[in-house]
Design goal:
Elements: H1 11-22, H2 33-52, E1 58-63, H3 68-80, E2 84-91, H4 96-103, H5 129-136, E3 141-143, H6 145-159, H7 169-176, E4 185-186, H8 195-204
Parallel strand pairs: 1-2, 1-4, 2-3
Length: 207
């Protein structure tokens, strides 16, 4: 395990240097064609389950950092369920995808911002994922850390699942954005949460 200072060190540069120094092949967990294709299998499952439930037209809310999962799901839905449109969800202060898509170019997040959603706190959209979502984007959403904590507590209370903050942003948007349509598909991803933070979610947001 190699730790780094997210606020002052660039992860892309660090991993590139390490890969070159050790003679390794660098496979990014998001901005890689095969990784995006693998994450697209989620979209295939969504299309199948939505069809079985009679859902033909609904927003598909996905957690979004660099956009690998959102892009993969969007590509799969384009083929199997084109009326299900991906809407990436990001934490406040790290809505780089929403800003970048609005601007038509990749923009970076400001330094110094903080969020509990560490799994999806990234500097900017991916080079591969950005053009995919430019074409298939259904509109982005942003949620606060407190909304994420509430979503984590509700997921545990009602669904009996443990979600990490970054994996709960889509659920938070589905729960706390009343302007969304009645039928919404939300992807919940990841259970790697610090015990103290999970305890905080449960204690502060009893359901």
């Amino acid at each position: 395990m190699i730790l780094y200072d997210r606020a002052n060190q660039d992860c892309d540069t660090l991993e590139t240097v390490l890969a070159e120094a050790r003679g390794l092949s660098l496979i990014k967990p998001f901005d890689d064609a095969q990784v995006i294709a693998g994450q697209g299998s989620i979209g295939i499952e969504i299309a199948v389950q939505a069809a079985a439930a009679g859902v033909r037209d609904a927003p598909v809310l996905t957690c979004c950092g660099v956009g690998g999962m959102a892009a993969g799901i969007a590509l799969a839905l384009q083929s199997d369920a084109p009326d299900l449109r991906v809407r990436p969800v990001e934490p406040e202060g790290f809505e780089d995808f929403m800003r970048s898509l609005a601007a038509g170019k990749i923009l970076r997040n400001a330094t110094g911002a903080a969020s509990i959603c560490d799994a999806i706190v990234m500097p900017q959209p991916g080079d591969l994922t950005f053009p995919i979502l430019q074409r298939l984007y259904g509109g982005g959403l942003v949620v606060s850390d407190e909304e994420v904590l509430r979503a984590m507590a509700m997921a545990f209370a009602h669904l009996r699942i443990v979600l990490e903050p970054g994996g709960a942003v889509a659920l938070a948007a589905a729960l706390f954005r009343p302007y969304l349509p009645q039928t919404v598909i939300a992807v919940a991803s990841g259970g790697n949460v610090d015990p103290a933070l999970f305890r905080r979610a449960l204690e502060q947001h009893t359901v």
